[in-house]
């Protein structure tokens, strides 16, 4: 059970001069229940790649398979696919349009052909999952704070009960608390429901904290695919791509350069703290 | 003269129904007293909904106080006669670049501001080239902005404001949509503007790492300024910041976590260099003299 891309390429731009090859020969497989981070500079092709995964864009070359089926085959149900591979765009709250919160979240499941009762039930579950209280159900989305609007928008996709959830920069513009809450909820969904999550993020700190596998995009190519420690150990190569490791990694490297025998692999604050304590001969 | 000075500034949002009656009123800012010197680099942080953007909009008279007074470069923003001059002197960069770009070609978009100010054509093109180079977008000068990525558009928007040569530039989360490289470039541009051109910079951000190099930091919560100080003063109060839904740079957090485990480190460490030096010194003191690399 997986989402598989095979030798995918894609170009856009109508004029030859301005044609940009957004994706070049990408092959990868994401299995059900994985929590994957996607990093890369602005314009590296991350968003285009996400749109390939739920068949919003058709690849110029190559194939996309969902559970082994070619999604661009004539008889494939692409509309159905988009509910199984839920895509939350950047600033999804700009796409809220219904007059109240509950109706907005109901839109997705209703569109799947569920009865109004069933749609409502799903919507309520989804809203509870992202931590939106019942008191907000009848409010206009515009009466909510930015962080709450973002949650409602994510609930709109969750209500379709996707097998894979793709989030494109879900925390951009949120304050640190809102960011931690939303990512925490998603991590919980991943653990409890076994939902596959693909998180596109510019925050290496967030990626280091939550994901189990990282895809690194550079100029339309998939350049690395591995576990966070492996990826962030390549500080120098990442820097050449305009990326960075989490800051703690640089602190550990700095300590090592000064002669302290410290493990430089940690990628989170807690791991780094323990590594430093151990290097100083103290109990973590 | 202060570039920005306010006394007891307050602002109330009102929504008015069809009959012209006030339906809903929300106090977005209250009791704000500010003193910002020309050439300062100020950072404003605070949770979503704390009033940061409402305050930013006061600085170039998009909104004017409903209470108290705000002077920008000595001019009362509530006086409509001053609006034009205030907007000329205070440039704004917003979070979403899609709302800020108007022309069909990058270089024309950047030239729009100075052209509107009546700058001679030759000088406009000079400024356009200069500003696009500063933000690293010169090679895209002939492109259409709608073909650019979000981060690239934002850099064009910043170049557009820079081209007007304002005395003060207010950036409302300009880096929220950018990658680490883009963020660095934008901050570098802001820093250069501040240090070399002596433009006052007011930066609103959720990235605590971006605050470290500011001269002063204002923390906002529920429409008020609740903390003021240098980055070091502010970031040594980890628990207070948490109360306001904020965090501290990762290096400060790591130092704080190590302190909690009993390492004698100073408060408010802001840079990697500081922390590394402190830890190496500790290692030496504890007679675990690290072996010198060859």
Secondary-structure blueprint:
The complex is a heterodimer of chains A (284) and B (294).
Chain A: E1 2-12, E2 20-31, E3 35-40, H1 46-53, E4 61-66, E5 69-70, H2 78-84, E6 85-88, H3 101-111, H4 116-129, H5 146-158, E7 164-168, H6 176-193, E8 196-200, H7 204-210, E9 213-218, E10 221-226, H8 228-232, H9 235-240, H10 247-257, H11 269-279
Parallel strand pairs in A: 3-8, 3-9, 6-7, 7-8
Antiparallel strand pairs in A: 1-2, 1-4, 4-5, 9-10
Helix pairs in contact in A: 3-4, 3-5, 4-5
Chain B: E1 4-16, E2 22-36, E3 41-45, H1 52-59, E4 67-72, E5 75-76, H2 83-89, E6 90-93, H3 106-116, H4 121-134, H5 150-162, E7 168-172, H6 180-195, E8 200-204, E9 216-221, E10 224-229, H7 231-235, H8 238-243, H9 250-260, H10 272-285
Parallel strand pairs in B: 3-8, 3-9, 6-7, 7-8
Antiparallel strand pairs in B: 1-2, 1-4, 4-5, 9-10
Helix pairs in contact in B: 3-4, 3-5, 4-5
Brief rundown of the structure:
The complex is a heterodimer of chains A (284) and B (294). Chain A is an alpha/beta fold and 284 residues long. Helix content of chain A is 39%, strand content 22%.
């Amino acid at each position: 059970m997986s989402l598989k891309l095979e030798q995918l390429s894609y170009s856009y731009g109508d004029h030859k001069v301005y044609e940009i090859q957004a994706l070049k020969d990408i092959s990868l497989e994401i299995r059900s229940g994985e929590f994957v981070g996607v990093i890369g500079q602005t314009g590296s092709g991350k968003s285009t790649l996400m749109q390939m995964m739920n068949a919003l864009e058709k690849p110029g070359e190559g194939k996309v398979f969902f559970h082994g089926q070619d999604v661009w085959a004539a008889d494939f149900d692409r509309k159905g696919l988009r509910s199984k591979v839920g895509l939350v765009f950047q600033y999804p709250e700009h796409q809220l349009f219904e007059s109240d919160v509950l109706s907005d979240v109901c839109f997705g499941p209703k569109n799947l052909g569920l009865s109004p009762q069933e749609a409502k039930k799903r919507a309520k579950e989804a809203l509870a999952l992202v931590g939106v209280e019942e008191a907000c159900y009848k409010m206009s989305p515009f009466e909510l704070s930015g962080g709450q609007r973002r949650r409602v928008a994510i609930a709109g996709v969750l209500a379709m009960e996707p097998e894979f959830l793709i989030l494109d920069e879900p925390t951009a513009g949120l304050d640190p608390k809102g960011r931690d809450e939303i990512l925490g909820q998603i991590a919980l969904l991943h653990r409890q429901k076994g939902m596959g999550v693909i998180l596109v993020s510019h925050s290496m700190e967030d990626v280091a904290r939550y994901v189990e596998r990282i895809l690194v995009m550079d100029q339309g190519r998939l350049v690395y695919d591995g576990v966070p420690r492996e990826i962030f150990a390549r500080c120098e190569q990442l820097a050449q791509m305009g990326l960075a490791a989490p800051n703690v990694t640089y602190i550990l490297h700095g300590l090592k350069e000064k002669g302290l025998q410290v493990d430089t692999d940690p990628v989170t604050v807690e791991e780094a703290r323990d590594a430093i304590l151990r290097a100083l001969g103290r109990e973590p | 003269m202060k570039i920005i000075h306010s006394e007891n500034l307050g602002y109330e949002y009102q929504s008015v129904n069809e009959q012209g009656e006030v339906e809903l009123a929300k106090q977005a800012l209250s009791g704000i007293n500010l003193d910002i010197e020309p050439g300062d680099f100020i950072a404003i942080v605070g949770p979503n909904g704390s009033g940061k953007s409402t305050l930013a909009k006061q600085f170039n008279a998009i909104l004017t106080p409903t209470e108290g007074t705000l002077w920008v470069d000595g001019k009362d923003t509530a006086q409509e006669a001053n609006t034009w001059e205030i907007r000329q002197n205070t440039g704004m960069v917003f979070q979403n670049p899609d709302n800020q770009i108007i022309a069909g070609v990058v270089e024309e978009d950047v030239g729009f501001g100075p052209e509107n100010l009546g700058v001679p054509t030759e000088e406009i093109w000079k400024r356009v080239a200069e500003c696009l180079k500063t933000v690293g977008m010169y090679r895209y000068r002939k492109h259409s902005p709608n073909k650019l990525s979000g981060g690239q558009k934002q850099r064009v928007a910043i170049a557009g404001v820079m081209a007007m040569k304002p005395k003060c530039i207010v950036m409302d989360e300009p880096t929220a949509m950018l990658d680490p490289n883009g963020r660095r470039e934008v901050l570098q541009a802001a820093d250069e503007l501040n240090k070399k051109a002596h433009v006052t910079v007011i930066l609103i951000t959720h990235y605590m790492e971006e605050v470290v190099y500011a001269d002063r930091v204002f923390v906002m919560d529920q429409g008020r300024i609740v903390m003021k100080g240098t980055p070091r003063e502010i970031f040594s109060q980890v628990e207070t910041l948490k109360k306001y839904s904020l965090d501290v740079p990762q290096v400060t957090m790591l130092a704080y976590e190590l302190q909690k485990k009993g390492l004698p480190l100073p408060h408010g460490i802001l840079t990697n260099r500081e922390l590394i030096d402190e830890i190496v010194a500790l290692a030496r003191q504890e007679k675990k003299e690290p072996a010198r690399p060859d």
